[in-house]
Design goal:
Largest sheet: 12 strands, mixed
CATH topology of the largest domain: Isopropylmalate Dehydrogenase
Radius of gyration: 20 Å
CATH architecture of the largest domain: 3-Layer(aba) Sandwich
Number of strands: 12
CATH superfamily of the largest domain: Isopropylmalate Dehydrogenase
Oligomer: single chain
Structural class: alpha/beta
Length: about 350
Amino acid sequence: MDTKPIIGITMGDPAGIGPEIIAKALQNTALSSKARFVIYGANESLTLAADRCNLQTRWDRVDANAERASQNITSNIVVLDDGEEGLPFLKHKPSKLGGIVSKRWVESAITDAMLPVSHPRHLDGIVTAPICKESWSLAGYKWPGHTELFAARTKAKRHAMMFVSDKLRVVLATCHIPLMDIRNVLTIGKVFDAIDLADLGCKQIGIKRPKIAVTGLNPHAGENGLLGDEESRIVSPAIKVARNNGLDVHGPFPADTIFSRAAPYDVVVAMYHDQGLLPIKLLSAQSAVNWTVGIPIVRTSPDHGTAFDIAGADTADASSLQHAISLACQLTDTRHFAAC
C-alpha cells in the first residue's frame, strides 16, 4: 500500500504564474517522490504553461466532474480538470473568470481535505498557488484572502499566518487588515493567540522549547508611552499572560531593530502584515513559505503573489512553491506519526 501523503495543489489565478510554477516545481523528481499530488485547476492552462517552458507534462488528467474523480486514483500526479472555455488565454490581469475558477478550486480542495481519511478524495494537506484578491472581488467574493477562507471553512477558533524560511520565522497578530483599522482589532487576546500559535507552530516543526520575540506596534515600541500606549495596554499584558502559561517569550521590541538581531529567537511575532512581511521577503525572497497555523488541516503556500507582469514569460521562480510543498509534506508526516 502506498503510504505517501496526498497533497492537493490549487492552481491559483490562471492568468498568473500559478500554472507555470506548478509545472516547474513538479519537474523535481526528488520533490515529487515525497507525496502523491492532486492538482485542482485546468489541465489546458497547466499544459500550455509546460509547453511554453519546454517542460514535460508529468501528470495524468481526470475530469473533475467524472465518476472516476470520486474513485481511487493511483497516479503519482493527477490534474482534476475543472476549467472553463478560453481560460488559458486570459489576459495577465485581474478578471471575474479568474476569480470564479480560482476560488472554486480552493473550495474543492478544502472540501476534500475535510473528508474522512478513508475517502478516495481525502487530502492530507493543501498547497495553494497565488490567487488575486481583486479577481475574487470582481467575481463577487469578499474574502480578504486564502487564510480567512480556510479558517472559516474549517471552523477554526483561532488562526495565524506563520512564515517559515531558512533565515527567519514570523507570525502575524493581524492579517489582511487595512493599516488604519488595526487599532480597532488589536487586543490582548489577539496578541496572546499569535504568541501561543507561534509556540505551537515551532513545536510542530520540531523546536521543543521555542524562544519567541514580540514586536511593538509603534515606532521604538512606543518609547515608554511617548509614541503610543498600545505596548503597555495590549502587547505587554499579552506577553505576561503567555509567560504565565509557560511560554518563553520576550519583548515588546522595536520592530526596526528586532529582525536584524533575531538570531537568538526561533520566531518573531509581528503586529501587522507589512511589519512582518518586509523583513522575511528581504531576507528569504525565494525560500519563504506561508503556513496557516491553528486550522485542523495542513495548508501552505509560496510567499508571493500572482506576478501578472511576468506570467507566461518562463521567468517565474518556483523555489518558494517547492519549499511550500516540502513543508506540507513534513507537516503531514508529523501529524501522521503523532496519530500513531
